UniProtKB/TrEMBL annotation:
The lineage of its organism: Eukaryota, Metazoa, Chordata, Craniata, Vertebrata. GO terms for molecular function: FFAT motif binding. It comes from Mohoua ochrocephala. The gene is Vapa. The keyword Phosphoprotein applies. GO terms for cellular component: bicellular tight junction; endoplasmic reticulum membrane; plasma membrane. This is Vesicle-associated membrane protein-associated protein A.
Amino acid sequence: FSGPFTDVVTTNLKLRNPSDRKVCFKVKTTAPRRYCVRPNSGIIDPGSSVIVSVMLQPFDYDPNEKSKHKFMVQTTYAPPNITDMEAVWKEAKPDELMDSKLRCVFEMPNENDKLNDIDASKSAQVLNTSKQDGPMPKPHSVSLNDTETRKLVEECKRLQAEIMKLTDENRLLRDEGLRLRKVAHSDKSGSPTALALRDNGSNSLPSLLVVIAAIFIGFFLGKFIL
């Protein structure tokens, strides 16, 4: 078993049956509380093999303490029409049993192995970071922004021209209103009320057009600034 022993350490045993008969096996240990064996018993077909996992539980390792843990793999030929494994081992005669004994050895990795593990871990972290980061994202196309900006500028210029045109028309209408008022004062038969209504109608319409145009250009200028 190779340390560190701060976590479960697993070692595999490969059991092979070279005979032409089925063989029953059982794995025993002198420290059953320190190990977990899966499978700890079973049957191996002729010419087949079985992998047995031996899991050492975490413990405080003392390099000065010699391990006294041992394992024994016990085997016997399986009787025909076997149904009860426990009965097989109880009824087996000593001369029918075969066993192999194994002594446990605990080893701590040396400093070179630790350095190699650290380097490998760092390399894996760098590779994982590179994969997660991925390629640098491409910058957004600038041409689309320029095209949109150009359209907004042209629209603003068009609205400014409309405002100037409406302002000129408003000034002409105001001058016309003044002229008509002068005519009304000079014409004694004219109705002052009718002339006043006509003047108000003439002045209000261009002013309303100017307000609408100003709202539109304010909307487009706000979009352009944002």
